[in-house]
Recover the amino acids of this structure.
């Protein structure tokens, strides 16, 4: 797969500018690469290394630490099923087994048509609504096995499943790699002063002004 | 929607009687929009803060004894004071990497009221002269990221963030940053490593805590989402007013997520200190007791890392000190309830597996030990346990956390509580946390482990018979 597209390189420069040091942008940039391709390729990592000024090995070092980054192609929809204690007590494991049987794959696998990947994940912070899942990081809560089947059927038909929660009702579930549908945008004029820490030597003005007033 | 109902657009949140400090807008469906926020007193706290000197704002926070809501419960005002004077710049990092098993509050705060969090960040930055703020949101929380991104864009456009905020000489930038799935990044020094673009491995501390040497080697304040969400209310009111809620040592309210086998699991904002676990678990306004007429077996009182409590400890108040003395911690306010149909071996295994998966690999006792613990528990659970497995398990646990491990008292066995915190041979508390479910389950439910092992031995090795009472092998 590929390096970042021109449009994404422009976005990448935008993101890098928000940090006092370029390497800090690495995780958001890896997400950007994953948004473009659905996974993170070696070429993309080399490109990111050029953009932030580190070696490709350093990028890979960071990338491999975080489990959301996939180093090989995965399904269009990443189905994460929680089996941690709160969900396990209320049927999370049974839901995982149901998903495995329905889709004909084991946790970690991808269906042959490339639509779905299932993962057996740790707590995803919806414990009171067990058993819960995420599809491309959109929540499905208090799911029965039938609810799960409905979600899969709706996604196969190209619809937004009713049982998945989006920010606005009916918002599409983007393919794997895209997280929030909005980005922070900061224009040059709006920002206060993002510069490297070694260029700042004094207390901010509002502190010194207040001290003088006293 | 009335008191006692689930709020449909904030899944899990239940409206309860009493003053709400951080969840006051949750009942509005559009609580995350700028219009609603401004219509309900939004950014008034910032205006109030800007009318005072930074030192006064810091003093108000210190006087309120605003305790950190992330897990350790350290007073925020005192933490802020640890920044060495004359070292600039200073940074603020907001810990929104909520991933402790059972914990479900920061995500609601970020999704339902992002402006409140942003206002809290601005007040903190003003008080101690922080020149940039990074809002680190957990990678898996796509909707929270989306809502915060929108909120930041609106707030920048309206002049609440950026250059010369509201016409004052206060200027600060808030940057939305997001992670990529690593529990350990919730530890503050690992969070800083991750924010520098590195693998999220904790740094050794002491001697240098982040308030002295943090992001880019500069003084850095790391605060939890819920902690900062309290600041707008505090500025609009006062420390004195804040201390009218809760108890003397734990003032204010706190969000608790009660999950598991109760009738009405949910997220509740209650007064700290004066409310007890019993109120939460059995109260009509709260969880209404166990489901299906079952009885309480045990509960995790403060996130997966907390040693368990048992039915006779439900009267403990939701306050750090008494809970610590009882052998566990208030932690992240996550309560997971197990009834008598649950299996102690399985529950312990499921929690230990979490730590084995999430160990970052930096310290040997944790990297090796947690996966040993998982494997031993897995084979006991699967019916392949061996005599001596429990002793082996405890030995491995002792290498991660030496000495008596914090555990609740057990009057029936005449055993006293071992107070929190545990000792550790590792840099951060992740490894020692894996020991909590093991010692807790073994202290009270050892017979379940023994029975499983005895069953495995008699099934797999019929030539050996085991005397369960003396727990020793008897040759046949």
């Amino acid at each position: 797969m590929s390096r970042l597209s021109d449009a994404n390189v422009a976005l990448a420069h935008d993101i890098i500018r928000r940090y006092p040091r370029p390497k800090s942008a690495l995780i958001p940039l890896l997400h950007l690469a994953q948004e473009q391709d659905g996974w993170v390729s070696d070429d993309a990592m080399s490109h990111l290394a050029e953009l932030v000024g580190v070696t490709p090995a350093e990028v890979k070092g960071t990338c491999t630490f975080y489990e959301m980054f996939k180093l090989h192609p995965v399904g269009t929809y990443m189905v994460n099923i929680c089996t941690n204690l709160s969900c396990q007590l209320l049927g999370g494991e049974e839901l995982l087994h149901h998903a495995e049987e329905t889709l004909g794959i084991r946790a970690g696998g991808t269906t042959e048509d490339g639509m779905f990947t299932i993962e057996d994940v740790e707590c995803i912070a919806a414990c009171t609504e067990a058993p819960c899942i995420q599809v491309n990081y959109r929540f499905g809560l208090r799911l029965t096995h039938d609810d799960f089947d409905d979600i899969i059927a709706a996604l196969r038909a190209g619809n937004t499943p009713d049982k998945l929660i989006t920010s606005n009702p009916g918002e599409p579930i983007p393919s794997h790699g895209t997280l929030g549908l909005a980005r922070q945008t900061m224009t040059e004029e709006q920002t206060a002063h993002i510069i490297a820490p070694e260029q700042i030597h004094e207390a901010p003005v509002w502190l010194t002004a207040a001290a003088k007033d006293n | 929607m009335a008191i006692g109902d689930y709020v449909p657009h904030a899944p899990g949140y239940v409206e309860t009687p009493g003053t709400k400090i951080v969840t006051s807008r949750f009942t509005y469906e559009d609580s995350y929009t700028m219009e609603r926020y401004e219509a309900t007193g939004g950014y008034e706290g910032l205006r109030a803060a800007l009318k005072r000197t930074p030192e006064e704002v810091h003093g108000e926070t210190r006087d309120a004894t605003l305790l950190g809501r992330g897990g350790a419960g350290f007073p925020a005002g005192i933490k802020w004071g640890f920044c060495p004077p004359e070292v600039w710049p200073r940074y603020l990092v907001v810990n929104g990497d909520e991933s402790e098993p059972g914990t479900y509050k920061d995500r609601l705060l970020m999704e339902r009221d992002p402006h409140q969090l942003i206002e809290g960040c601005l007040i903190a930055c003003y008080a101690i002269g922080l020149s940039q703020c990074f809002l680190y949101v957990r990678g898996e929380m796509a909707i929270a990221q989306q809502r915060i991104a929108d909120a930041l864009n609106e707030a920048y456009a309206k002049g609440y963030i950026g250059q010369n905020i509201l016409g004052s000489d206060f200027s600060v930038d808030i940057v939305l940053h997001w992670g990529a799935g690593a529990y350990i990044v919730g530890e503050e020094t690992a969070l800083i490593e991750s924010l520098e673009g590195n693998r999220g491995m904790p740094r050794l501390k002491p001697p240098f805590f982040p308030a002295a040497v943090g992001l880019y080697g500069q003084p850095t304040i790391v605060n939890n989402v819920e902690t900062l969400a309290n600041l707008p209310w505090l500025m609009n009111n006062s420390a004195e007013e804040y201390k009218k809620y809760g108890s003397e040592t734990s003032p204010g309210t706190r969000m608790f997520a009660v999950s598991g086998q109760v009738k009405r699991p949910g997220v509740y904002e209650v007064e700290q200190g004066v409310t007890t676990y019993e109120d939460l678990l059995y109260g009509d306004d709260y969880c209404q007791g166990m489901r299906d007429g079952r009885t309480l077996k045990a509960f995790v009182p403060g996130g997966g890392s907390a040693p368990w409590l048992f039915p006779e400890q439900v009267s403990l108040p939701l306050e750090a000190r008494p809970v610590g003395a009882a052998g566990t911690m208030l932690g992240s306010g996550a309560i997971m309830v197990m009834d008598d149909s649950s299996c102690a071996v399985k529950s312990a295994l499921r929690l230990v597996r979490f730590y084995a998966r999430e160990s970052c690999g930096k310290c040997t006792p944790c990297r090796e030990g947690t996966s040993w613990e998982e494997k031993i528990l897995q084979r006991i659970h699967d019916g392949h346990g061996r005599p001596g497995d429990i002793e082996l398990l405890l030995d491995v646990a002792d290498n991660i956390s030496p000495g008596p491990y914090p555990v609740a008292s057990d009057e029936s066995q005449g055993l006293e509580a071992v107070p929190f915190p545990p000792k550790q041979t590792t840099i951060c508390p992740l490894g020692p946390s894996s020991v909590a479910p093991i010692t807790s389950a073994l202290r009270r439910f050892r017979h379940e482990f023994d029975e499983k092992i005895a069953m495995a031995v008699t099934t797999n090795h019929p030539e050996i018979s085991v005397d369960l009472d003396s727990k020793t092998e008897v040759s046949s």
Q: What stands out?
A: Residues 253-339 of chain B form a domain with the Ubiquitin-like (UB roll) fold (CATH 3.10.20.600).
